[in-house]
Amino acid sequence: MAAEIDSFSRGRDRGFTLVELLVVIAIIAILIALLLPAIQHVREAARRSHCTNNLKQIALALFTHHDSKLRFPPGNVTKGPCCNTKSYTNWAIEILPYLEQTTLYKQYRQDKFNEDPENAAVREASVPVYQCPSEIGVDMLDKPESGPGGTWNNQPGILYRRGSYRAMTGRSTGSYWWDTDENKGIDRRFRGVLHTVGTNGLQPESVKNITDGLSNTLMIGETSTYTRQKRRTFWAYSYGCYIHSAAVPQARTLWVDYDRCIAAGGTGGDNPCKRGWGSFHPNGLQFAFCDGSVNFLSVEIEMETFCRLATIAEGLHPEKWPPE
After folding, report:
1. pTM for the full predicted model
2. What is the pLDDT of residues 150-167, one digit of tens each?
3. Strand order of the sheet with strand 160-163?
């Protein structure tokens, strides 16, 4: 009997063999490998939902501005030729009071240029609703790549807070644009809802001007890039195309890769890339439409459809949006 007990005790204390231990480790590793994609998918779904809510809040703020002022805010305000003119305010600054940021808005000096020292506090402010949580490194200060005069080298210390969303200025040929005075060569029907104001007689738009239909017209979309970080979105920067983009019939403008866009080439050289779109969500990006809805657009969208969705009064638009 004692021998049996001793034998049982030895068997019980034997523990795991090396092979058994390796098998257990392998099983755990396999389970982790299977679970990680699912966890990452859930996290991205949550981030995308957060981003959707941001766009809905922005769209609501734009319409609240419209209800108050009887018009939408300007995409930006500039009163001179492209590439050498300082700017004033922009759409993202003007809707701050409707995003519970009244105190920040009151710090912005409308009588000063956007680049002036008096507006530094607003330029550098972090506004969470302008940041998509899927975007890497969005809540950072940085220097845009260019500014009035074509360079920031002679303007040390001017920093802007990055953002994730840009306004749709309208349809472009790839050579003419709605964010500066370079819109002389475009049919006025091709303008978007948030274009530049102060050049060539352009004024802020109202709902009555969106004759293509609110549900058929893009208003705000995601813009970022894996490369050339200084070409990202800067929410308070009114100059050029850092706070608004355009629709160009070139698929490269939806890639979330500025350098790749340039390398692909096309009409307008790098200018369509400067006014491109892109997000860190897989396979597409989100847009708020003029009816307040938010839709996910695939990077494979037919570009003529995309361009038609960018205009407020072209008279041509998809028969049904979103497609089934």
Report:
1. 0.84
2. 555 456 668 999 999 999
3. 141-142, 160-163, 233-234
Tokens of 61: 């703020």
pLDDT in tens, 257-303: 999 999 999 999 999 999 999 999 998 999 999 999 999 999 999 99
Q: What are the Cα distances from residue 81, in Å, to 87, 111, 199, 315?
A: 11, 19, 8, 30
- What b-and-e string marks burial along 123-143, b requiring 16 or more CB atoms within 10 Å of the CB? bebebebbbbbbbeebeeeeb
Closest by CA to 65, choosing from 111, 97, 90, is 97
Q: Identify which of 200, 212, 215, 206 has the alpha carbon closest to the alpha carbon of residue 292.
A: 215
Peptide bond just before 322 cis, omega within 30 deg:
yes
Q: How far apart are CA 282 and CA 289, in angstroms?
A: 20
Nearest to 162 by CA among 192, 123, 190, 191: 123
DSSP 191: B
